[in-house]
């Protein structure tokens, strides 16, 4: 049996949630009565995505990806994992979550104002530490904190869970929280931790955006080129006050999500181009496929209206497009020596 990732005793608990369900209300489509939700992960090398049950095709079409019917149909949300925690740590996490979930209905606040979530700062800080820690240890989140930082968070949780004490490390953690107000029920939102930034670590989770720092104050940083009103947000740390949240517009959140989509498409392109070079090398045509060929392949994949959506980005279809473009290329080449 594995050991608990927090306290190192036997990890006897199955079905641990990486993200508490109350925060995945739009993303996790197992939630009753919703039908258009989607969560995303981009790891540094390979973008991957998971999709809700009837995720709408229009949204998917804007994205790209390893999208196939199986994946959409299976509705597998890889954010529940077995045997990563012991029962005690799992129960402690649940207590943090239950406490924090009482703040969730406060989502109709005046824009630009830092409002109180009503959650005591120590409890709120522990809650967000637990979220970043769980994302970092998850096999499926696609991103990790740097190991030293992950261990700082682990120790804080372990000391609190085992002794109800907070360690000196606790003082090192600061975060700023923004929350989009009145996000429509049907809006498609994201779960994504930006792998490009440490200190602060950047997380978008449904209508929440979190900037978390260790050792230093929370600095502003673009989120995939998008500037958020981070300076306006009050910094949270272990002060004897309630947690403060900056109310932002839904429009700001959706713009950030748009920047994510552009980044995801770019990431797909990079992987596709790498694959094109590999094929080119295997066929002994040279080390790199010419750029205009790669661009043409990408364009054909993204704009092909003749195949059903589910097939558009399938591996088979991708191979067909690559072969087609390669054949055109070969026709234009002068005959090689010894060939007539
Ligand atoms: Zn444990």
Question: What's the short version?
Answer:
This is HNH endonuclease. The protein contains nine helices and eleven strands.
The number of E-state strands comes to 11
How much of the sequence lies in strands comes to 15-25%
Poorly predicted segments = 29-77
Q: Structural class from helices and strands?
A: alpha+beta
Task: Supply Rg.
Answer: 23 Å
Average pLDDT over all residues: 81
Assign a percent range to the helix content: 25-40%
Terminal-residue CA separation: 65 Å
SSE pattern, N- to C-terminal: EEEHHEHEHHEEEEEEHHHH
How many structural domains in the coordinates?
Answer: 2
Ligands and ions found: zinc ion
Main sheet properties: 7 strands, mixed
Coarse morphology: elongated
Protein name: HNH endonuclease
Organism: Chryseobacterium rhizoplanae
Describe this structure in words.
By secondary structure, the chain is of the alpha+beta class. The chain has 2 domains: 234 residues, no CATH class; 77 residues, no CATH class. The strands form 3 sheets. Strands 5, 6, 7, 8, 9, 10 and 11 form a 7-stranded mixed β-sheet that branches. A hairpin with a 2-residue loop joins β8 and β9. α7 crosses α9. The longest helix is centred in the last third of the chain and has 33 residues. The chain is elongated. The N and C termini lie far apart (65 Å). 36% of the residues are buried. The chain binds zinc ion. Zinc ion binds next to α3. Zinc ion (ZN) binds next to α3.
């Amino acid at each position: 049996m594995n050991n608990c990732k927090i306290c190192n005793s036997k990890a006897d608990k199955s079905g641990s949630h990486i993200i508490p369900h109350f925060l995945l209300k739009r993303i996790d489509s197992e939630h009753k009565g919703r039908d258009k939700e989607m969560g995303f992960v981009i790891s540094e090398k390979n973008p991957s995505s998971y999709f809700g049950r009837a995720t709408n095709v229009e949204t998917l079409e804007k994205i790209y990806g390893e999208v196939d019917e199986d994946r959409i149909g299976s509705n597998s949300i890889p954010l529940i994992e077995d045997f990563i925690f012991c029962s005690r740590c799992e129960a402690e996490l649940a207590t943090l979550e239950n406490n924090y979930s009482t703040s969730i209905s406060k989502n109709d606040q005046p824009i630009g104002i830092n409002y109180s979530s009503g959650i005591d700062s120590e409890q709120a800080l522990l809650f967000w530490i637990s979220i970043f820690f769980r994302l970092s240890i998850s096999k499926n989140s696609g991103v990790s904190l740097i190991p030293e930082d992950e261990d700082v968070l682990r120790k804080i949780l372990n000391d609190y869970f085992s002794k109800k004490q907070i360690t000196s490390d606790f003082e090192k953690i600061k975060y700023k929280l923004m929350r989009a107000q009145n996000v429509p029920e049907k809006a498609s939102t994201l779960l994504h931790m930006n792998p490009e930034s440490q200190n602060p670590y950047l997380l978008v989770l449904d209508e929440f955006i979190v900037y978390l720092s260790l050792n230093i104050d929370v600095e502003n940083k673009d989120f995939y080129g998008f500037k958020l009103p981070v300076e306006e947000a009050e910094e949270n740390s272990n002060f004897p006050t309630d947690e403060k949240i900056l109310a932002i517009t839904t429009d700001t959140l959706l713009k950030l999500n748009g920047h994510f989509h552009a980044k995801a498409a770019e990431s797909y392109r990079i992987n596709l181009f790498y694959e094109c070079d590999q094929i080119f090398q295997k066929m002994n045509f040279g080390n790199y496929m010419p750029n205009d060929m790669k661009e043409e392949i990408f364009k054909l994949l993204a704009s092909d209206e003749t195949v059903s959506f589910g097939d558009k980005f399938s591996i088979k279809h991708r191979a067909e497009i690559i072969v087609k473009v390669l054949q055109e290329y070969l026709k234009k080449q002068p005959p090689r020596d010894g060939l007539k």
